[in-house]
Amino acid sequence: CNENIVILQSMKKIISSVLMCVACATSYAQSGTNSPYSQYGIGVLSENPGAQSRGMNGLGIGFHENNQVNYLNPASYSSIDSLSFIFDAGASGQITQFKEQGSTFNARNGNFEYIIAGLRLAKHLGASFGFVPFTNVGYSYSNSGKIVNPNDGTVTPYTNTYNGEGGLHQAYLGLGWMPIKNFSIGVNASYMWGSYERSVVNQYTDASINTLSRNYTADFNSIHTTLGFQYTHALSKKDAVTLGATYSFAHQLGAEPVFSIISKNSQTSVSDTTTYNAGKGMNLPSTLSLGLMWNHGQRLKLGVDYSLQKWSTAKTPVYTETNNVGSYVLVNNMYNDRHKVTLGGEFCPNVSSRHFFSRIRYRVGASLASSYLKINNIDGPKEFSMSAGVGIPIMNAYNSRSLLNISAQWVNQNSSSFIKENSFRINIGLTFNERWFAKWKVE
Hints:
Layout: H1 2-27, E1 44-45, H2 51-55, E2 85-100, E3 103-122, E4 125-148, E5 155-180, E6 183-204, E7 211-234, E8 239-248, E9 251-252, E10 258-264, E11 271-277, E12 283-284, E13 287-296, E14 300-309, E15 316-322, E16 325-331, E17 338-347, E18 361-369, E19 374-375, E20 378-379, E21 382-394, E22 402-414, E23 420-434
Antiparallel strand pairs: 1-4, 2-3, 2-23, 3-4, 4-5, 5-6, 6-7, 7-8, 7-10, 8-13, 9-12, 10-11, 13-14, 14-17, 15-16, 17-18, 18-21, 19-20, 21-22, 22-23
């Protein structure tokens, strides 16, 4: 009877957690970026959900833990402890400095990042669910200039204003299974949704010249699937290496991008609108990721990840005009394939110690990535980033398995042709780890 009560209480907590994930996903509307680069493609990519991964700058394809959820590789869910329910949520705040042609501008923003959970369903079978971002769109800036009338030489100042917001989000459910010792497979199935709204408004000080607005919109609705595997080989009693890999399938985004041009007379407020529909066909590319992790006695874990995203095969809407006749169509070969390499690791003096400082986890990581963007046939900025963080144990009479995770990240996007970005980000996450499924014995 007591065992049934414990099971019912655990199921109620699981259902409550699922509903919390749904509520957070439904209410999510903030943008996690101020970058002008988010005006291209489907936005700035979000790549490192999960507290442990963030401290190592997004490393994780070869990592598997019994007390943390590694969303990056669904095969890792098979390692989740049988007595625990793990709940991980995080947020971030960042300061970004933009530099272009000797000018500098700073921007700040904060953002809810992710909420994920994991539990053991049966022996060697684990599950995870949650909400994570996929891309972010958020920018607002302007530039100004002057035009000269060739007939009378009059000069008219103008201002171009650029605004955009939106992004792609995904709610996922994943399973990880270990069919044979040291070999695990897994799958993440995600429902992906979102939108973007981008605008370029051209205004003149001369009221006789029409204001021209160009608006780009798209609504996304799709399914995203990722397969993963991990194989661990023991080198000695204390040393082991794990090889991991994931593959995300290319798929349609279910969007019909719309482009509209609005010409408005500032004196009469009369406007003329022309709308173009590119039709369905926008898609996400396939992604292949490989990872290797060396584990020394559960104290020191070092790893390397490599990922390839085939953005050159993705289609994007482009507006062209020939003989004053416009068209808005989907084309490919507008992006570059994206390569990324990440190195990092985690050190913990003694994970099973009862001493506070012996159980602190120290994490560090660094990455080098190419951009998937191609702007006016010029490659987008290369990205170099570094992070460092700690996992601080929460130790009290009721729970000694949870962690407060804090990490700092620096991201540099550098290009000789475009704007340069330097971002400093603070990530804070809480990993709640409760022994929901322990059987209590009354004497």
